[in-house]
Write a structure and sequence with these properties.
Blueprint lengths: L8 E5 L5 E5 L11 E4 L7 E2 L13 E2 L2 E2 L1 E3 L10 E8 L2 E2 L7 E3 L8 E9 L6 E4 L3 E2 L7 E5 L9 E5 L5 E7 L2 E11 L5 E7 L8 E6 L5 E4 L5 E3 L2 E3 L6 E4 L5 E7 L8 E6 L4 E5 L12 E4 L6 E6 L8 E5 L5 E4 L11 E4 L6 E6 L8 E5 L4 E5 L11 E5 L2
Antiparallel strand pairs: 1-2, 3-12, 4-8, 5-6, 7-10, 8-9, 8-11, 11-12, 11-13, 14-15, 15-16, 16-17, 18-19, 19-20, 20-23, 21-22, 24-25, 25-26, 26-27, 28-29, 29-30, 30-31, 32-33, 33-34, 34-35
Length: 395
């Protein structure tokens, strides 16, 4: 068979099951011409994907951005096999050797392309190199837990989507409800979010955000929830600035640490590893002076965890650079007992903690892996957690 110029097609399934097709890795409405070069084939082969036998059920179309992209080479000779290698900014992506590729956070803003080796039956293998496309990642930029933004007994999973909107995923028993995932407010692009509980002591749980570029801290006060036929939905009032200069800190809304009835913040000064307690004043601000309560925290990720061991005091969790998970039991005065290791293998995971998601009175955690899979870990009440359960995706 004579080498020929082929087209690569991107196919995705829309939210309502509609199949949309367009030229892969090219501007909309144009044909991506493929450079063809004879070559020696790899041993890892599969039948070339066509518009008929392509696994469309795995695709997902969200706001005109695909979660998965596929390398289709139509019009090849029947029985031809293909091998694939995906590249990010011109560099081979380890393990990305299938006909489909899932767009991950590492691909955001990067240029993807794919090299496909086609081997006709009894023919000479040839290389098909696609054009390039800059990718947009559609997963959550971050997530956090709140005790509850609607006033019930179960915590809520907060997230910021790829478009900068703050959303809420409500829970029933031990898992999020897909139908109860909704948008609350726009304008959170480039911000870190936190669910501290009732920061201003008005009876409604609030959200705190920090603009990463300016270091300014804002309070988004919780309002009475909106009642609908599908259940209660969270509402937030107008934001108010409550601080500045937070760009160099890792902030942890940690509940009432000092026993005065008001929600407090912990913060790690990233340049030095010092840990400070910023006590809340119950009016939406802070008490002065701030207190240094620890040191040596450089390189750690710190999380507010609620009461993990059932002693009535707020505890914290940390993950070191090796991926070990530690609990620090709160003493009720803003200080903590010596750490105990409660897990390992957490490197590369994002953690959200500080809420009871089952209604049993025990604090639980949610994690997210590098492929945006969400896992739930039920608290046992002794500082440890039950085996993880896969409960959804972060997109």
């Amino acid at each position: 068979m004579k080498p020929q110029v082929l087209r690569a097609i991107a196919v995705s399934v829309g939210l309502f099951g509609l199949v949309t097709t367009g030229t892969f890795l090219a501007e909309a409405g144009t044909v991506a011409q493929m450079a063809v070069t004879p070559m020696v084939a790899s041993s890892a082969k599969e039948l070339c994907k066509t518009e008929i036998d392509m696994p469309q059920s795995k695709a997902r179309l969200v706001s005109h951005n695909t979660r998965y992209v596929y390398a289709l080479v139509p019009d090849v000779e029947k029985g031809s096999t293909c091998t694939y290698q995906w590249l990010r900014d011109g560099q081979e992506i380890p393990g990305a050797t299938g006909s489909s590729y899932e767009i991950l956070a590492a691909d955001d803003g990067k240029v993807l392309m794919v090299r496909t080796t086609v081997t006709p039956p009894g023919g000479v293998p040839y290389l098909v190199t696609s054009d390039r496309r800059r990718m947009k990642y559609i997963g959550w930029s971050q997530m956090a837990l709140s005790p509850s933004l609607v006033g019930d007994q179960l915590g809520d999973l907060l997230f910021v989507d790829w478009n900068g909107e703050l959303g809420v995923n409500s829970w029933v028993k031990d898992r999020p409800v897909d139908q109860a995932r909704y948008s609350v407010k726009k304008g959170f692009a480039g911000a870190m979010i936190y669910g501290p509980g009732d920061w201003n002591n008005d009876g409604h749980n609030d959200v705190i955000s920090i603009d990463k570029s300016s270091g300014r801290m804002f309070l988004h006060p919780g309002l009475s929830p909106q009642r609908t036929d599908q259940g209660s939905k969270a509402r937030l009032g107008s934001k108010a600035q409550i601080g500045q200069g937070w760009g160099g800190f890792q902030v942890i809304p940690a509940g009432d640490l000092d026993g005065d009835g008001f929600v407090d913040l912990l913060a790690i000064k990233q340049s030095t590893g010092e840990l400070f307690l910023y006590a809340g004043d119950g009016k939406g601000g802070f008490k002065y002076p701030y207190r240094k309560v620890g040191y040596g925290w450089k390189g750690y990720d710190l999380y507010a965890a609620g009461d993990l061991n059932g002693d009535g005091n707020v505890d914290i969790l940390s993950i070191n650079s090796a991926g070990d998970l530690f609990m620090y039991a709160g003493k009720g005065d803003g200080t903590f007992a010596k750490r105990i290791q409660v897990g390992y293998g957490w490197k590369g995971y994002q953690l959200a903690a500080g809420a009871d998601l089952t209604g049993d009175g025990l604090a639980d955690i949610v994690s997210r892996d590098s492929r945006d899979m969400l896992y739930f870990y039920a608290g046992k009440g002794d500082g440890y957690f039950a085996k993880r359960v896969h409960v959804g995706t972060a997109f």
